[in-house]
Design a protein that fits this description.
Cytochrome C Oxidase, Chain A; mainly alpha; single chain; about 750 residues; 8 strands
């Protein structure tokens, strides 16, 4: 490729990561401070900063981010604890002021009198009483009374029994329950107190809460408008470039299609990869089963059809496993496909390569079994002070303990070594920007960027830790893995003779420029309300809008996949037809799930009321399963098509699985998650965010009706979509092709 392409990529990477480093610096220096002590107006200590950190540890240890949320990040079947604390404290303060000033209950006051008290409370709470020199935070009498009321509330919720789908006496230690409340008190303070020298709170006036005067500020409206301008401009520019340079997309260029399945003879290392695919489909099945149980907790908080399962499988663990297993099976599919493709392309079998493949398989099994077992033991408080290392780390999508996280990183490094050994002959004499080197860069980046999830510890400020968490959840998944899979798809097309290497390489460079150019800084859309500086909202809103641009481009290009695969007779005669169909599905869900649903909630003014509602889950399901899940299934079908004998393959099972997975996912969204999210957002706007996330609202008849409707989509997805896939892969395990005895190279 020309130096212009390389320079463009270099510019994008430097600009993106320089901006992200700047955002990280601003976050670490402007995060809401954790005071050494919280005192009353006479200077008497109420609790300490150590209590706040300890409370954050309790929140993490018991997996409460997979029950409710703080600053809106977490699960949806419990309350947002920061918003709930803030509302309860405000109600307590207003009731106190009503009795003090008018001698009657707050509800008995006139609208004017209530407005007067709310204005006074807002002014009181928004005054920042943190002293940076003494590192002390002063609570007013109203804040102290609210704190006392919250102690009673959360002591009941996590002790003698509340409304959450958790066992009675979930947190047995009274001291830990008290520390937890103190952590919530700190988070609520950040939600209601202005930043130093600013007229908005640490969380940019989130959550919506009339009682304390939390409403959208001018910045939210400004950056919402700017994001729309960026979207329209970006799509217009893309249309122009695609018209001016028609060779930017997937395009045939005189190559001849090769359907080489029947003649394919795998290496021993490739046949050794097949157990990976068995694990992939089984984990996929288990993940959805736990998803069904998790969803059922919405309509039956006490268990499963009259059976109380909360002691064995509380909501915190079923949702943790649902999320964790999704990452495991998708990542395993991609890693396995990478090893398979590397050997296929290089036609190289290094010495003892199959033993390394088997060793990695064992390592993945150890991490999978060890982490999910550790999460359960951690939540049960069976690991003592080792909970962070071997139990539930406490962060959504990064639930696995730090030990398992390190072991998984080591496994990824071993995987990178395996791939490198295979492609090493391809690298000789190649330009550093060639296709084999792009594969190498993608392979190196995967363990590197996953390791950023270890930049925090239990004592790290919540806002700072969440900054690094999204480096994994967003940047690693949506950026690095997006690049890696584009490279794999490019090699996929090259191996089948659909496109030339040069054409594939141009697509990769465009992907880097568009996806990483928007996605690196676009990570900021996760930082709007998490007590991070307003600059993150400004940058995140504009660049996350640009993330829709490459998704639009991909949709325009999706049907070219079919045209690239033209063969004599029907397209369905093509051996990789169903792998191609899943790639087309990726394009569709990329646009709808990541693009449309993603942009819907990324606009700051919409996000202000929508944040941490089911509309977020709607985007998450459509993007994670629709894009990355479908891509993983495509990888499974592509590789297993080569590895199993012709008589074991079944186009019928593939067809049933394809249509059931896609139709089931669409029904899941349209019948449940999307409409539930809409009414939840309306509730957030009309009654406040605390109400939209309250037990009474989530377990209302209307909300439960949508949850029951979800059964239609769930059953279609699991029975029609996953089970045929499991049957196909298991049947293939009994009919594997014989590995060739090729000469080995070191």
């Amino acid at each position: 490729m020309s130096w212009r392409w390389k320079l463009s990529v270099l510019f994008v990477l430097i600009m993106g990561f320089s901006t992200l480093i700047f955002m990280g610096h601003e976050t670490s220096t402007q995060a809401p401070p954790i005071p050494d002590k919280v005192v009353d107006q006479s200077g008497t200590t109420i609790f300490t900063g150590e209590d706040i950190i300890a409370g954050q540890g309790v929140f993490q240890k018991f997996g409460l981010m997979d029950v409710g949320s703080v600053f809106g990040h977490g699960a949806y079947n419990g309350p947002d604890f920061s918003a709930e604390y803030l509302h309860l404290a405000a109600e307590t303060a207003l009731e106190r002021e009503a009795q003090k000033k008018f001698g009657k209950a707050y509800a008995q006051l006139s609208a004017a009198e209530q407005g007067e008290l709310k204005t006074g409370l807002s002014s009181e709470l928004k005054q920042n009483r943190y002293d940076a020199q003494s590192k002390s935070l002063t609570f007013t009498e109203n804040q102290i009374e609210g704190y006392k009321a919250s102690i009673k509330h959360f002591d009941t919720e996590f002790g003698s029994g509340g409304k959450l789908p958790l066992p009675i006496n979930y947190i047995k230690d009274e001291k830990e329950r008290l520390q937890l409340t103190r952590f919530f008190a700190w988070s609520a303070w950040a939600c209601s107190t202005n930043r130093p020298g600013k007229d908005f709170t640490f969380t940019n006036n989130w959550p919506p809460e009339e009682l304390v005067g939390n409403f959208p500020n001018w910045q939210i409206f400004l950056w919402s408008a700017m994001s729309l301008i960026m979207l329209v401009g970006g799509i217009g520019l893309t249309q122009f470039l695609m018209s001016a340079f028609p060779n930017l997309g997937w395009a045939p260029d005189g190559t001849t299609l090769t359907d080489n399945v029947k003649s394919f003879k795998p290496f021993r290392s490739q046949t050794s990869i097949y157990p990976y695919f068995i694990v992939v489909v089984l984990l996929f099945l288990f993940q959805t089963v736990f998803g069904v149980v998790t969803a059922h907790y919405i309509v039956e908080a006490g268990g499963l059809y009259g059976i109380d399962i909360r002691d064995i499988l509380p909501y915190s663990i079923t949702r943790s496993w649902h999320l964790q297993l999704s990452i495991f099976w998708i990542a395993t599919a991609w890693l396995a496909a990478g090893m398979f493709m590397a050997a296929m392309l290089s036609k190289n079998e290094p010495k003892a390569q199959h033993w390394l493949v088997k060793a990695l398989f064992v390592a993945i099994l150890i991490v999978a079994v060890g982490s999910i077992g550790g999460e359960w033991m951690g939540i049960k408080n069976m690991l003592g002070n080792l909970w962070f290392w071997f139990g539930h780390q406490g962060w959504e999508y990064l639930e696995l303990g730090r030990f398992w996280q390190i072991l998984l990183t080591v496994g990824m490094v071993l995987w990178a070594v395996i791939v490198f050994r295979s492609i090493a002959p391809l690298l000789k004499g190649q330009d550093k920007g060639s296709l084999p080197y792009m594969l190498l860069y993608g392979v190196i980046a995967i363990p590197l960027f996953f390791s950023f999830g270890m930049m925090y510890h239990p004592g790290t400020n919540f806002a700072v830790a969440d900054f690094w968490r999204w480096w994994v959840v967003h940047l690693w998944v949506e950026g690095i893995f997006e690049l890696y899979t584009t490279i794999i798809v490019a090699y996929f097309f090259c191996s089948l003779g659909m496109v030339s290497e040069r054409s594939a390489l141009s697509v990769i460079y465009v992907d880097i420029i568009l996806y990483l150019g928007s996605g690196i800084i676009g990570i900021g859309h996760h930082y709007y309300w998490t007590a991070q500086p307003a600059i993150n909202m400004a940058l995140g809103s504009m660049f996350s809008a640009l993330e829709v641009v490459p998704l639009t481009l991909l949709t325009m290009e999706a049907w070219k996949f079919v045209h690239l695969a033209k063969v004599e007779g029907s397209i369905k005669n093509f051996s990789h037809y169903w792998a191609m169909m899943f790639l087309i599905a990726v394009g569709f869900w990329n646009f709808l799930g990541a693009g449309v649903f993603g942009f819907l909630i990324n606009t700051p003014i919409v996000s202000y009321y929508e944040h941490a509602t089911y509309l977020t889950s709607n985007h998450g399901h459509a993007a994670l399963m629709g894009v990355y899940g479908m891509l993983a299934v495509a990888a499974v079908l592509f590789c297993t098509r080569y590895l199993m004998t012709e008589d074991a393959w079944s186009n019928k099972l593939c067809a049933i699985s394809f249509w059931s997975l896609n139709v089931g996912l669409m029904l899941m969204l349209l019948l449940n998650i999307f409409p539930a999210g809409v009414i939840q957002m309306i509730a957030s706007y009309t009654h406040g965010f605390w109400f939209a996330r309250s037990y009474d609202f989530i377990h209302s008849s209307q909300f439960q009706m949508f949850t029951w409707l979800r059964v239609i989509g769930d059953m279609t997805f699991v029975v029609g979509g996953i089970l045929p896939l499991v049957l196909l892969v298991l049947r293939g395990a009994l009919h594997l092709r014989k590995a060739q005895d090729a000469p080995s190279t070191s």
